[in-house]
Predict the structure.
Amino acid sequence: PRPILLTRHGESQDNVRGRIGGDTAISEKGELYSKKLANFVGKRLKSERAASIWTSTLQRTILTASPIVGFPKIQWRALDEINAGVCDGMTYEEIKKNMPEEYESRKKDKLRYRYPRGESYLDVIQRLEPVIIELERQRAPVVVISHQAVLRALYAYFADRPLKEVPHIEMPLHTIIEIQMGVTGVVEKRYKLMD
Ligand code: F6P
């Protein structure tokens, strides 16, 4: 059975500063991850000629994919991170301080909360539908390099996790989640390549 490899981008400048959203490049640590990932993918998918690498349209995923050679790369807007609307570029502390009602509503119902002029987790889940259809249609392995909220939604779909858990699933940086769909169900492996 063909694997699907899910990973967040390498650490970004915004991750370092604790800012959400944005479109910053990756940090030095993030670059190190991109190299380790390329090495891992090269070995894991050595004889898989039809494999492909899917990224979002944001710099941090494209840069993370860049050291991977020998496989076609496809950019999907649907793999872009949750749109934080008016909160894009802020830290959680800033949101709490400057927009306490927004902060509280999100905390109360993170799944349904929609950022003003942005998206909710439910919106993200909906826009991922074409990506999921395409992933299920693939016969060859796919490496998906995306973002925290999007990967929570994708992972929950394949691992059959309930909707209400989606926004709270742990999705660490610098870790590959490998999913294999077999006859007996889903087999999952995790590879933490660095801290
Ligand atoms: O902090 C990284 C990030 O990808 C942000 O860009 C995004 O808003 C956030 O994670 C999503 O996680 P949460 O829904 O827990 O805020």
